[in-house]
Amino acid sequence: MRVTYCTDLDKSVVVTNCEKRGWIQVGPEDDWNIYWAGTLTCRSLFSVDSGYRMSDNQIINHFPNHYEISRKDLLVKNVKRYRRDLEKEGNLMAERGDSKYLHLDFIPVTFVLPADYNMFVEEYRKAPQSTWIMKPCGRSQGSGIFLINKLSKLKKWSREAKNPLQPQLSIKESYVISRYIDNPLLIGGKKFDLRLYVLVTSFRPLKAYLFKLGFCRFCTVKYNSSVAELDNMYVHLTNVSVQRHGAEYNSLHGGKLSVQNLRLFLESTRGKQVTERLFDQISWLIIHSLKAVQPVIATDRHCFECYGYDIIIDNKLKPWLIEVNASPALTSTTANDRILKHKLVDNILSIVIPPSGYPDIRWNKTPSHEALGNFEVLIDEDVLYYENSAHLERLRQGK
């Protein structure tokens, strides 16, 4: 059958993967089967005003309110609510020790400004001179980020930004302020973070897959936690959009290292068992960040989404979720990058399209093992349900 696709992103990795399958490109006003859209396009398509209704053979690459996990303030709000709900249920996952969550402590202590300003000040005074990182909630690529270690610096910023800490004023932009991970794991003296790709094909039941070809993004300047380097973003921010402007940036490898090589490095320096535990913890935090937004995401059988997870590992080998991106960059900065992103899009399309090769939302969204390519199953609640049901049936039959 003739498959048509539409995209408003000028990305060769999307177009070449669709053309390779023999699909025909059409415009947004035409009859399309697959739409690889920007987040704004998706939001307008799902808005009440648009009145657009998708047919059974149409799929699109974002959930209507994907921002519940990708907006920094909403991610924090949803994780905090998830913890509270589990605590009320008496769930062991919400167990605490020394006032910290033992199992769900995977995001740094974070407050939303201006709303949580007083709570932030109270927390700051417990450890004066601690370092915090300020990020605008709705921006990306390192834009508008800065570090503070004194309340006076925050107040100075507030004055210069026309008092955004006064909630009574109508301010469009809110910020999150998080405790800075000032003991990051270093390789070659440099700070790095992990960029991992997570494909979600359904939130209820939750079906999520992890792309095995993620990578580390390195700073170009050696890490230094001194106050003198607090404003040097080449020391602190791993975003390629920031680092590529630095004098030390290497365009050949783009300051990137594959996750496989990171694993080998850690196995040789820290041991295999410790490394396995770290990667298990990373899978754990991804699954529970998705479960945190599961009740509020408007799940729709027409939708799938590839999220870009940014994770920092500290020197005790504890992973921290820094943020989640709803539109991770598909632009290639190196030859390896181009190959990786081509495989990423190819594998995503193989998973979200039924074996017939024609989109159909009535399909149960359970791809074959071969269709997974470089993805691995993180969680499939459908499979868990059937496994649990089969287990209960065996118990009932006394087997």
From TrEMBL:
State if Cytoplasm is listed as a keyword. yes
Q: Which reaction does it catalyse?
A: (L-glutamyl)(n)-gamma-L-glutamyl-L-glutamyl-[protein] + L-glutamate + ATP = (L-glutamyl)(n+1)-gamma-L-glutamyl-L-glutamyl-[protein] + ADP + phosphate + H(+)
Domain of life here?
A: Eukaryota
What GO biological process, any one, is recorded here? microtubule cytoskeleton organization
One annotated Gene Ontology cellular component of this protein: ciliary basal body
Pfam families per the UniProt record, alphabetical: TTL
Listed A to Z, the keywords are:
ATP-binding, Cell projection, Cilium, Cytoplasm, Cytoskeleton, Ligase, Microtubule, Nucleotide-binding
A single GO molecular-function term is: tubulin binding
Q: In its keyword annotation, does this UniProt entry include ATP-binding? A: yes
InterPro entries referenced in this protein's UniProt entry, alphabetically: TTL/TTLL_fam
Q: Which family does it belong to?
A: Belongs to the tubulin polyglutamylase family.
For this entry, the protein name equals: Polyglutamylase complex subunit TTLL1
Q: Which organism is it from?
A: Agrilus planipennis (Emerald ash borer)
